[in-house]
From TrEMBL:
Origin species: miscellaneous Crenarchaeota group-1 archaeon SG8-32-3
One Pfam family per UniProt: OsmC
Source organism, top-level taxon: Archaea
Record-annotated membrane-spanning stretches: none
Protein name: Osmotically inducible protein OsmC
Amino acid sequence: MKINARAKLIKGFQIVLDDGRSHSVVVDLPPDLGTGLGPTSLEICVMSHAGCYVTICASTAKKMRIPLKDLTVRVEAVETDEAGTITEETFNIYIDAEASADRIQRLHDLTVKNCPVDILLKKAGVRIKYNLKTVKE
């Protein structure tokens, strides 16, 4: 499988990214350097990690026959000047599902094991911490 991407400089630091199909997003630098019209490319990377986790988790939950009532992930990434990029991330994962704590933990473990963005960032040396919280009504 091939994944395609194109980046086109529009003005200043405004860049349109597209996947060669029908999806695009504008990235930019914060207002002190750009216009803040869109997230930075590094922010898109963190957002992609959160989105990948939710995608794999939802898919895995379906395979495990765990009906999800709600699934929300919040990620905080740390970028250091010395590394020049992200060095660590903290995931706060909120899962509301009719399942035992053991099954929710298994769902999480399988998600992390199979999330391509997670695998990529770990191979790059990013330290990732997960805070799994189950929501009970």
